[in-house]
Amino acid sequence: MKHLKLLLPGMKILLLILVIVYLIICAWFYINQEKLLFLETKLPQAYTFPFQHPYEEVFVSSTDEARLHGLLFTADSARGVIYYLHGNGGDLSAWGEVAGLYTRLGFDVFMLDYRGYGKSEGTTQTEKQFFADAQAGYDYVKSRYQEDQIVVLGYSLGSAPASRLAADNHPRHLILQAPFYDIIDAARHIPHPVFKLTYLIPDFLFRFRLKNHEAVAKTQVPITLFHGEEDITVYPGSAQKLQAHFKPGDQVVMLPGVGHNDLTADPFYWQVMQDVFKRL
Question: Residues 6 or more apart from 199 whose CB is under 8 A from it?
Fold first, then answer.
């Protein structure tokens, strides 16, 4: 008993230290989570894109007048437009490289940089702001194309605004590449040890939830989902979890041997994409 009494004060101090460290971790995560989610890269406003494919630079104003930058790539005799929402790393100087792959399908391609990326102003602070910016881009596209000519495509992080746009509007088709169920589920399945800490973070501290499952459940337009079976960034089980919220006719395509960044290099991906666009 005497030894226990001697240990108790030290145990209480250790417990207090652990509680303080835990609270500091939670506070840091709450304040900085957008920095983990949005890996911004800046471009000078005078930057000239080196793409050989014809393109037009576009600036779109969001609901709070933030100036967002986009690129519109044109196809010969285009039958419509793909509104492409990119992943969390890199800006249009990199993402624009894939536009030519999609214009071959006979559609123009519009890409928008999120706040803080490329030539877009500001920094994304809230989920509401993130979705409002994507909607502003959609409204711009709708001003130039009939809505039934718009295909919304979201890759990884971009799957969240893409799903939301399809739920809130009436495009022709929704295409999701490596989408997550929601951001909490995605973070807790990333194998990197740092992300294991998210198991310690209460759900209510996630200011960004990005609930793709709720959006696809409300989406009335056809959905085609692609996911690589070797994806370690967004685990492949996300596709099956999302499929449970799909309506009849929606399609999930699993790509054997394909990782998170390899979709567009896979021949079967393009075979399915060509079939999808032939039916549009």
Answer: 188
Three-state SS letters, 27-70: HHHHHHHHHHHCECCECCCCCCCCCCCCEEEEEEECCCCCEEEE
Give the model's pLDDT for residue 1.
Answer: 55
54 near 107, Cβ under 8 Å? no
Nearest to 154, CA basis, from 70, 226, 81 = 226
Given this model, what pLDDT does residue 185 score? 94
Residue 97 DSSP code: G
Q: How far apart are CA 87 and CA 95, in angstroms?
A: 9
- What pLDDT digit, counting tens, does each position of 140-166 carry? 999 999 999 999 999 999 999 999 999
Q: What is the DSSP letter of 264?
A: G
Distances (CA, A) of 77 to 15, 49, 51, 173: 68, 23, 20, 20
Tell me the torsion sign for CA atoms 194, 195, 199, 203.
positive
pLDDT band at 6 (very low <50, low <70, confident <90, very high): low
Question: What are the structure tokens assigned to 155, written together?
Answer: 């890759």
Helix 127-144 and helix 159-168, axial crossing angle in degrees, nearest 10: 60
For residues 55 and 207, what is the distance between their CA atoms, to the nearest angstrom? Answer: 36
The percentage of the chain sitting over the pLDDT mark of 70, rounded to a whole number, equals: 96
In angstroms, the Cα distances linking 184 to 103, 114, 172, 200 are 34, 21, 29, 12
